[in-house]
Amino acid sequence: MRDILAEIVEKKRAIVAEAKARVPLEALKEKLTYGSFAMSHSFGRRPWSLIAECKLQSPAKGRLTKSHSVLELAKLYEENGAHMLSVHTDPHFLGSNEDFQAVRAAVKLPLLRKDFVIDPYQIYEARALGADAVLLIARILSREELKKFLYLCWSLGMDALVEVHDRADLAAAHSTPADYIGINNRNLVTFETSPEETVKLMPYAEKGRRYISESGIFGRSDAELVAASGVTGILVGEGLVRADDVGAMTRLLAEGIKAQNIQEETA
What is the spatial distance between Cα 104 and Cα 187, in angstroms, rounded to a whole number? Predict the structure, then answer.
């Protein structure tokens, strides 16, 4: 069966090599200003957070929307109450550094650079682009790399969302001091999504960390399901961009659903 993640990572090596040749690391470092942990400041003020993703395409499903550009989505999300934005810079998702910079210039919300980080260079590059956080995928990094990359993020004033898909990934994330762990509800073999994946993993969550449910959230019932499991936020892409009314769906998912009440009742 096709291993889409392995294909993306293999192509990413060439993309990173080209970026290094174009802008050497030392030159990149000269452009840096240090971040202010904007994700932590934003999430620390509320019991529920929505990371709205500017997602035009999926390797598994193809083009998701032609109605909005990345920049238009970003502005809609901000206007309708999203707490943070996720912006793709990988070509498999029609992402680009240029789109990221355009969003950075247009919105004030914290920005997550959504990419497949396999090299420290990409973390410096993310900060140079204005990212407040990066995604670190446990499945494609060793435990040593996860910890090393996490500390590098912190040294640059950025947060990191460590993404996991199963208990092995979760154990790897827990071997680091990561504050934010994202549970991706996508099966990496079939690429199907189900919020039940979050429900299965949350019994193994550790106190002192915040968990975000990613993928497969398409409305109130899905959000309430993962909220009841104990997560304190969601990352939503397809469920927003394919909504009949993107603004209305953003408001619905950003309001917290019944997250706080559900967590109190199940505590």
Answer: 31
Active site residue 40: no
Low-confidence ranges of the chain (pLDDT < 50): 1, 259-267
Active site residue 53: yes
69 is a catalytic site residue: no
Kindly report the number of other CB atoms within 10 A of residue 90's CB atom: 18
Q: What is the pLDDT of residue 59?
A: 58
- pTM to 2 decimals? 0.92
The model's pLDDT over 84-102, given as tens digits with 9 standing for 90+, comes to: 999 999 887 777 999 999 9
Instruction: Give the C-alpha separation, 220 to 122, whole Å.
Output: 35
The question of whether 184 is a catalytic residue gets the answer yes
Q: Which of 78, 125, 197, 214 is catalytic?
A: 214
- The domains found in the chain, sorted by start residue, are 4-29+36-266 (3.20.20.70)
Residue partners of 237: CB distance under 8 A and separation at least 6: 52, 53, 54, 55, 64, 86, 215
Q: Which of 109, 162, 155 is nearest to 135 (CA)?
A: 162
